[in-house]
């Protein structure tokens, strides 16, 4: 017995940035293909000439690569030949094929030319609306005589090509929803090729080209968002007209925001590019997207690498109920992966966020790079995404003592006798000290101050931390002090511990 090779496709329209919904579609297709040693095909659906742009295609390819999703067939980006034997993979380059197949349907009388003008169709629709009838095409041109058609063609009348829909319900199997059936009236006689000008055919429509391509590219499973479910009966009718074997379908649930409205920019970042810019790791996004509508068999595992997902994923466990996009959970996963990545990768990814605080990477010494690795390593555990790093570490590069003193939170801490005593003792020690403050020196100062004043814990440490960093919370002193002192030696404008305390306390 030969088993059919699984072939799936991701078929985005390059009319905007790749957003989480489509990225999840790409991921599920990819996982399904990889799981079953099948093929994953990238097809660019750019028949909407007005809205399709090359830059979106380029960005899309970059985003997919960034996510780690590779494809076996499809375009490879500008200036590179596409790969695979079923191309071209851009629909705008396949128009002849669509016209040829439409001709075939015309010849077989499974499709017909419709000469109705836009105005006539509008009138029909308005009339149907007024009479509370469904606004479907009346089929007026369906039974035009051969003579009438010939006459219209001879007079150069523009025409669209419509598919004849039969009486039978349109059925398909959906791996997420089971059998789905639509009444034939739900689709009426859909247009396959729009009406053109000067006797030329117009653009073929989405539902038609998708069906032709899915058939010619031997797609076995169509996995896509459920916003396409109402298109599917039309595509099924086209498959049936050609006598092609139907693929299986899997319509993925809608992604909602926390308010249970369809996820949109209103809810925050939604494009893959913007998550990347904010410093989310691809492995975190992949992991999160996988969980948006799919869950592990054990019902509890939530962290999965792409490899683990490839082994664990199945369409049977994809739920038809809407998924709610939860930024907190995505942040949690991002923190999880930030903790796991190497110090070198973390630093490489973080550098770009420090424009304005640090020189160009190519202009700094190795010592700065080594320092930077330590620095981001110290602050990364306290951020959700990497673009938050500069704010967390800004104080290293200097802070305004006046502002630090007067901020509401700090003022309350500083305005106590205990704080005043601690800072006076600290100032005395700084005055008597020269050179850098090592963690050992600092530790002995703190224990001396504790002994001298009887002040301990928060009351002891908070004012000191404010004096050095401008805030009462932050990384442990053992790591922070060397970072400050080493940074101060690097010509980055970082004040030493001593300078900080002097400025703050006014030694
Ligand atoms: N081009 C369609 C879209 O971007 C997808 C079509 C499909 O998957 O069938 O929504």
Structural account:
This protein has 507 residues and is mainly alpha-helical. It has helices at 20-35, 54-67, 95-107, 118-130, 146-154, 206-216, 232-242, 272-278, 282-291, 306-312, 327-340, 343-350, 366-379, 389-393, 401-406, 408-414, 417-431, 439-453, 457-469, 477-488, 497-505, and strands at 7-10, 39-42, 111-114, 160-163, 170-174, 178-182, 191-193, 221-225, 248-252, 255-256, 323-324. 36% of the residues are buried. Glutamic acid is lined by residues 11-13, 45, 210, 224, 228.
| Mean pLDDT over all positions | 95
Q: Number of helical runs?
A: 21
Low-confidence stretches: none
Cα separation of the termini:
87 Å
Task: Describe the SSE topology.
Blueprint: E1 7-10, H1 20-35, E2 39-42, H2 54-67, H3 95-107, E3 111-114, H4 118-130, H5 146-154, E4 160-163, E5 170-174, E6 178-182, E7 191-193, H6 206-216, E8 221-225, H7 232-242, E9 248-252, E10 255-256, H8 272-278, H9 282-291, H10 306-312, E11 323-324, H11 327-340, H12 343-350, H13 366-379, H14 389-393, H15 401-406, H16 408-414, H17 417-431, H18 439-453, H19 457-469, H20 477-488, H21 497-505
Helix pairs in contact: 1-10, 6-7, 9-11, 12-13, 13-20, 17-18, 17-19, 17-21, 19-21
The protein binds glutamic acid.
Glutamic acid is lined by residues 11-13, 45, 210, 224, 228.
């Amino acid at each position: 017995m030969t088993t059919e090779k699984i072939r799936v496709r991701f078929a985005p329209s390059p009319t905007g940035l790749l957003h989480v919904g489509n990225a999840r579609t790409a991921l599920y297709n990819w996982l399904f293909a990889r799981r079953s040693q099948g093929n994953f095909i990238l097809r660019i659906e750019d028949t909407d000439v007005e809205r399709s742009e090359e830059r979106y295609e380029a960005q899309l390819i970059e985003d997919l690569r960034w996510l780690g999703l590779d494809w076996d067939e499809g375009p490879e980006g500008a200036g590179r030949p596409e790969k695979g034997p079923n191309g071209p993979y851009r629909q705008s380059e396949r128009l002849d094929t669509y016209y040829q197949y439409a001709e075939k349907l015309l010849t077989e009388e499974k499709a017909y030319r419709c000469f109705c003008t836009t105005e006539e169709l509008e009138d029909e629709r308005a009339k149907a609306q007024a009479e509370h009838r469904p606004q479907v095409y009346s089929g007026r041109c369906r039974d035009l005589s051969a003579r009438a058609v010939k006459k219209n063609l001879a007079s150069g009348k523009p025409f669209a090509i419509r598919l004849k829909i039969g009486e039978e319900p349109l059925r398909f199997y959906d791996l997420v929803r089971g059998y789905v059936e639509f009444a034939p009236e739900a689709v009426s006689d859909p247009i396959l090729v729009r009406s053109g000008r000067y006797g030329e055919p117009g653009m073929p429509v989405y539902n038609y080209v998708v069906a032709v391509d899915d058939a010619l590219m031997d797609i076995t499973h169509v996995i896509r968002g459920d916003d396409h479910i109402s298109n599917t009966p039309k595509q099924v009718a086209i498959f049936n007209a050609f006598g092609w074997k139907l693929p299986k379908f899997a319509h993925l649930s809608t992604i909602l925001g926390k308010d249970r409205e369809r996820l949109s920019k209103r809810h925050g970042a939604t494009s893959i590019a913007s998550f990347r810019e904010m410093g989310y790791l691809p492995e975190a996004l992949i992991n999160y997207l996988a969980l948006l509508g799919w869950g592990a068999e054990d019902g509890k595992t939530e962290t999965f690498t792409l490899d683990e997902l490839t082994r664990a994923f199945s369409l049977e466990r994809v739920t038809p109920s809407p998924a709610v996009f939860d930024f907190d959970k995505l942040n949690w996963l991002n923190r999880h992966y930030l903790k796991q990545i190497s110090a070198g990768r973390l630093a490489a990814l973080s550098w770009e966020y420090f424009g304005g605080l640090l020189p160009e990477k190519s202009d700094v010494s190795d010592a700065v790079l080594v320092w930077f690795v330590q620095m981001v390593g110290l602050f990364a555990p306290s951020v959700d995404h990497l673009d938050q790093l500069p704010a967390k570490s800004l104080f290293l590069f200097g802070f305004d003592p006046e502002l630090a003193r007067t901020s509401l939170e700090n003022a309350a801490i500083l305005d106590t006798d205990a704080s005043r005593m601690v800072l006076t003792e600290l100032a005395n020690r700084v005055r008597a000290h020269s050179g850098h403050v090592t963690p050992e020196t600092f530790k002995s100062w703190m224990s001396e101050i504790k002994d001298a004043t009887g002040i301990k814990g928060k009351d002891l440490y908070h004012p000191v931390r404010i004096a050095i960093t401008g805030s009462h919370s932050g990384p442990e002193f053992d790591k922070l002090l060397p970072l400050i002192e080493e940074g101060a030696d690097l010509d980055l404008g970082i004040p030493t511990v001593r300078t900080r305390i002097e400025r703050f306390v006014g030694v």
